[in-house]
Design goal:
By secondary structure, the protein is mainly α. It is found in: Cell membrane. This is MFS transporter. It is a multi-pass membrane protein.
């Protein structure tokens, strides 16, 4: 019996590895396609508005499908949904590589390409819920924050790989080769899931803090509050990711090399903070408190950045880095907290709820910031980002109260 337990205990790290590889695969495509935007505009002869539509399509697909995939993960199981997501996304990119790449005088329609990218995102979005649910199933609560943080760190890692490989393949061999290469990667990881992943039944003892409840998290405001808090904390992350380069170029005239180093440091530091906060909150059982502190730090840094946005460059860069780091640091413990609050039985649904709010914001922010900038300058942009981040604080407080009240009723 001890040998069997030891084997199962070790196997959970294999599950985590498979989840990380699946998440990296998704991120390679999700980030790699937008990074080729300049090359895509030239080869496909897109206008700027057409290019913006195409580059936002995968995010839109993920946003509209996340909750549905979460529910299906709870019903069908992690392994099946992961295979559907990886295989389906691979099939979508295979179709793009065959029919929707420039070939001589034949230029594909931006609408056709956008529709298939929406489909790729809608199917591939299942990977987020399924890989997270697998981690929640195989790890106990005292390790979940650390394990989920490692899984979440796979996203910036995959994004970094995609940002290097996609442009390299496109520049050397064309878009057909880039899309085909990604399709092959998806199919290879699908086979890894098929042969390497075992299915584990979720027992009542593993259900987490909400194990007394048989109510779907979709009907519980305590869980929605955590999802909306994640939505609020995505504002500083995406604002820095998408418009920090424009801000630092226009307002402080920094070179692209310097800006790239700053943003690389923010991404690298944010990934490290995900793992550190995951490990520490497992040890001290304080995920909710740390999430609230992250909200306060992001809010204060964002608001102050707005107030001094035209002043000393060193101060501005420091505040921008803090805002971005806080926006990146919350993911591991945030996804863990919403899954634990819902109960492992409903982990897929809860992770889908969080993913839906996060990707909706990720899709909307690139359109919102130029509007705010036109009305209120960079000062207004960063102050609004800070205020929005602070909204996570009362949402998390309210979520704790609802959970505690429910636990009292069940006691």
């Amino acid at each position: 019996m001890d040998t069997l337990y030891s084997t199962a205990s070790r196997y959970r790290w294999i599950i985590l590895l498979i989840g990380v590889l699946a998440q990296i695969t998704f991120a390679v495509g999700f980030v790699g396609v937008p990074v080729t935007g300049v090359l895509m505009r030239e080869d496909y002869q897109f206008t700027l508005s057409q290019l913006g539509f195409v580059l936002g399509c995968m995010g839109l697909g993920v946003a509209i499908s996340e909750i549905a995939w979460g529910v299906l993960t709870d019903k069908l199981g992690d392994k099946i949904v992961l295979m559907i997501g990886l295989g389906g996304m691979g099939a979508a990119f295979l179709a793009i590589s065959i029919w929707l790449v420039p070939n001589g005088d034949m230029i594909p329609s931006y609408i056709s390409l956008g529709v298939l990218l929406i489909l790729a995102g809608a199917i591939g979005g299942s990977i987020n819920s399924a890989s997270g649910s697998a981690v929640m199933t195989w790890f106990q609560d005292h390790e979940r924050g650390f394990a989920m943080s490692i899984r979440q760190t796979a996203i910036p890692v995959g994004g970094a790989i995609g940002s290097v490989t996609f442009p390299f393949i496109v520049a050397g061999y064309g878009f057909g080769a880039a899309f085909l290469s990604f399709a092959v990667l998806c199919f290879a990881v699908t086979l890894l899931v098929w042969f390497g992943m075992k299915v584990k039944e979720v027992g009542q003892a593993a259900a987490g803090t909400s194990q007394a409840s048989d109510v779907s998290p979709l009907k519980r405001m305590s869980v929605w509050n955590i999802a909306l808090a994640g939505c609020a904390l995505t504002f500083p992350q995406m604002a820095v990711l998408t418009f920090a380069a424009v801000f630092l170029t226009d307002e402080h005239h920094l070179s692209m090399g310097t800006i790239s180093l700053i943003l690389f440091g923010v991404q690298l530091g944010g990934g490290a903070l995900r793992i550190i906060t995951g490990r520490l909150t497992d040890k001290y059982k304080n995920r909710r408190q740390v999430l609230r502190w992250i909200a306060v730090i992001a809010a204060v840094a964002g608001i102050v950045l707005g107030l001094v946005s035209h002043q000393n460059t060193f101060v501005v860069v420091t505040l921008l880095a803090i805002t971005g780091l806080a926006g990146n640091a919350w993911h591991g413990i945030g996804y863990t907290e919403i899954a634990v609050a819902a109960g492992v039985r409903y982990a897929g649904t809860a992770l889908g709820m969080m993913g839906a709010t996060v990707f909706i914001v990720s899709f909307v922010i690139p359109y919102m910031i130029p509007i705010i900038l036109g009305v209120a300058s960079w000062t207004g942009v960063w102050i609004i980002v800070g205020i929005t981040a602070f909204l996570a604080f009362p949402l998390l407080v309210q979520s704790v109260k609802k959970i505690e009240n429910k636990e009292v009723k069940h006691a």
